[in-house]
Amino acid sequence: MAKSLLFTPLSHYKLAMTRRNHMTSNIVDVLLVGGGAMSTTLGMLLKELDPSLSISMVERLEKVAQESTDGWNNAGTGHAAYCELNYTSQNADGSTNIDKAVNINAAFEVSLQFWSYLVEKGLLPEPQQFINRVPHQSFVWGARNVEMLKSRHAAMSAHPAFREMQFTEDREKMTEWMPLIMKNRSGDEPLAATRIEHGSDVNFGAIARSMAAHLTTQEGFNVELSADVVDLQKQTDGTWKVTINQNGSHRDIHAKFVFLGAGGGALPLLQKSGIKEGKGYGGFPVSGQWLVCEKPELVEQHFAKVYGAAPIGAPPMSVPHLDTRIIDGKKAILFGPFAGFTTKFLKQGSVFDLMKSVRADNLGNMLSVGKNNMDLTKYLISEVRQSHKDRCDSLRNFFPDAQDKDWSLAYAGQRVQIIKKDPNGGGKLEFGTEAIAAEDGSIAALLGASPGASTTVNTMINILERCFADRVASDEWQTKLKEMVPSYGQSLVENTDLLLEVRARTLETLKLKP
């Protein structure tokens, strides 16, 4: 475990104070790079654990939470593995492996606990402003997929975390669950669906902005907007000198700990840091698009997040789904995602991002991934070439009566999938998230995509444990962590009684109870 650098003397630095919106220091305990879900969550955790910490957040855009965290830049699914078929897999004997689903479910419960704590403390607004109950469903057609879903339901419903999952092959019941999807669905093709009532639609942008708004009221917390990190240098005393370009003016910030939570922009920053733990990593950018319907008479007929099976040859993140979205009190229906390709690492990034990320230490891994993933490349090309009618034809697999004129195309946030060294040789493409930390705990970064923001709290607590080990071990921090996340220190995967206990509380507090 790395020892924390916090409270290491910095007496040889001259304290530099600059007047901006209010007094800010160029020397801080913690520097958060990026103003999205990850950085705001880490900032809230740290300020609750130790209000005396000096923390600065730098965000390259004019507002926080405008990239992947923004409500319209992601699907808003509270990923708990209730409906996402790609979170389970098939064992050699044909049975369903639910290990990944159980772990993701437990991680999401950690987020729900922390959000419940913040609501109870008045640090987040009323739950309906950022999270709403929307049932989570899986829906498949074809005999093979029906058998797969039946096997999945049998395995999952036997586990306490998923005991409330319902399964049906009855068309009348499915019409009750999802009338738009079943309306005028002809033929006698086998159909099946599962449903969990207490699924959620989450506005991660609203959560991040609410946390940032609270943090800016706290002494010792500062947000620098329109501030782009251009360099990171490790100093001889173990701290970091981070150079930012803010409105054309360069300035250095000295920090004892740096967190790179910049979404797709985290990889280039990790490379700038030069730490050995970041060697060999590359990025594969994938853009997302959605069909959106805001027609009231259709929106009111659909109340669920309905996930299907990914097409053959499609990557895991392209699982099609028809979702109820509730953003800033307004309902809409979203269908997708449709993948695309761009060389940008951020939605508001540069077309040169991918090229600039190529290094001697990751070139081989990236070439290997390109060679071994030709099917993915062909799939992305086919997605990019689709017309509006093509996309609406895909939608009609879910919603047979869909009319092209009722749907418009929206562009989601940019995702950068991880490319890393494969122990068996070459490189491999990862579709999850990965936290990387320096051996001395002075810097950490988060790479990757799904399940992303849903498991933010669990991921940030893991960062604390790796980079603030001595402080996490203290009685003071242990007590506070258990107050914020009552299950802290215990496994919700192993202790299912505890999982059900904390779930009862969060469903009540966050008003997710059916």
UniProtKB/TrEMBL annotation:
<dbReference type="InterPro" id="IPR006231">
    <property type="entry name" value="MQO"/>
</dbReference>
<dbReference type="Pfam" id="PF06039">
    <property type="entry name" value="Mqo"/>
</dbReference>
<keyword id="KW-0274">FAD</keyword>
<comment type="similarity">
    <text>Belongs to the MQO family.</text>
</comment>
<keyword id="KW-0285">Flavoprotein</keyword>
<keyword id="KW-0816">Tricarboxylic acid cycle</keyword>
<keyword id="KW-0560">Oxidoreductase</keyword>
<dbReference type="GO" id="GO:0008924">
    <property type="term" value="F:L-malate dehydrogenase (quinone) activity"/>
</dbReference>
<protein>
    <recommendedName>
        <fullName>Probable malate:quinone oxidoreductase</fullName>
        <ecNumber>1.1.5.4</ecNumber>
    </recommendedName>
</protein>
<comment type="pathway">
    <text>Carbohydrate metabolism; tricarboxylic acid cycle; oxaloacetate from (S)-malate (quinone route): step 1/1.</text>
</comment>
<dbReference type="InterPro" id="IPR036188">
    <property type="entry name" value="FAD/NAD-bd_sf"/>
</dbReference>
